[in-house]
Amino acid sequence: MSDDLDGDDQSGRDPVSFGSSTPPAEWAMAGVGALLAIVLVTVLVVVGLTTRREPPGFELRVTEVSVVDADTSLVRVDVSNVGGAPAEAVLVEGHRTDDPGPPSRAEVDHLSAGSMASVGLFFTGPRPEPDDLDLRVVGFRHP
């Protein structure tokens, strides 16, 4: 009885050498795969070492002002993270420039770098014009 469990009658041959039964096309594909893996790792290392991590940066833009009822308006605001890092719990605050009352606030749970989210801010009184609003991001948390 033979000790060869896989039934290969060429047990004396080195299966990794080019003289093995492995077809040359398979060796070529293995070489291409290894080359691609090396290129991918090299690109990731270079990008990781040369990319500057900028903090989050925010831009606010009023997209719509609508009247909810006789004394309330809804202002929709796009919040864009134009910085190089994500942010969590982004707190957007707005108030009417002609009203010293408390501001309206909304929070965005997560804002990835280069992404955008929309929030709604409610204001009482007559319908505000976008130029009559003071909007700003008052805080965020690093993830």
Question: Any overview of this molecule?
Answer:
It is built from one helix and six strands; from the N terminus they run αββββββ. The chain has two domains: 9-51; 58-141, Lipoprotein YajI-like (Immunoglobulin-like, Sandwich). The chain is α+β, with helices and mostly antiparallel strands. The chain has one helix at 24-50, and strands at 58-69, 72-81, 87-96, 104-111, 116-124, 133-141. A hairpin with a 2-residue loop joins strand 1 (58-69) and strand 2 (72-81). It is elongated, with a radius of gyration of 31 Å. The strands form two sheets. It has a three-stranded antiparallel beta sheet with strand order 1-2-5, with no helix packed on it. Strands 4-3-6 form a three-stranded antiparallel beta sheet, with no helix packed on it.
Biggest sheet: strands side by side, in what order? Answer: 1-2-5
The name of the CATH superfamily of the largest domain reads Lipoprotein YajI-like
Sheet with the most strands, sense and barrel status: 3 strands, antiparallel
Q: Kindly state the number of beta strands.
A: 6
CATH architecture tag of the largest domain: Sandwich
Give the uncertain stretches in residue-range form: none
